[in-house]
Amino acid sequence: MDEFGPLNLQPRPGRAWRPTARPVRLRAVYNRPAGVRHMLAALDLGSGKLVYRIRERKRWREFLSFLKVLRARWPDGKLYLVMDNFAPHKHAEVRSWAAGNAVDLVFVPTYTSWLNWIESEFAAPRYFALNGTDHRSHAEQGDAIAAYLRWRNARAEPKRDFAPGSVIRSWTGYKTNVA
């Protein structure tokens, strides 16, 4: 589980087929009267699918609301959520609700967000739904993200091997400088 954003309305450079010497001109944006949005997302390792919600803020209230969505989606058994140490994740109301609803909040150590598999999944929405676009409304931007995630989830496969063959999976490839 993690947050993706901020999703603001600005032209995003990206690659495109253009005639030689005729680059795409991006509009100037000096203010953002429409504000920003944030995507809260969870990766189901069993199916490989992403569950998400786009919200105006990313406080503990929005996070708790998202946890309730996840609990409703998987009502049976214990639910384990791996996440970073963002303060809203540790709010007293969130912890209390999680304890009473069989949700185990698992926090990765500080500065190790790369251990959370969902982090690598955020590159694709940025590349396929946001780069090279100039969305004029958050609804239009949300539709582009939703279209990509529907396509992605239709082709999702279970996540089984995290960093296969990497030194982080075994001590055999680990070398020390101990004399």
TrEMBL record:
Residue runs in coiled coils: none
InterPro entries per the UniProt record, alphabetical: RNaseH-like_sf, RNaseH_sf, Tc1-like_DDE_dom
Entry's Gene Ontology molecular function annotations: endonuclease activity; nucleic acid binding
Keyword Glycoprotein applies: no
Highest taxon above the source species: Bacteria
Keyword Hydrolase: yes
Pfam families named in the record: DDE_3 (PF13358)
Domain Tc1-like transposase DDE intervals: 1-123
Entry keywords, A to Z: Endonuclease, Hydrolase, Nuclease
UniProt protein name: DDE superfamily endonuclease
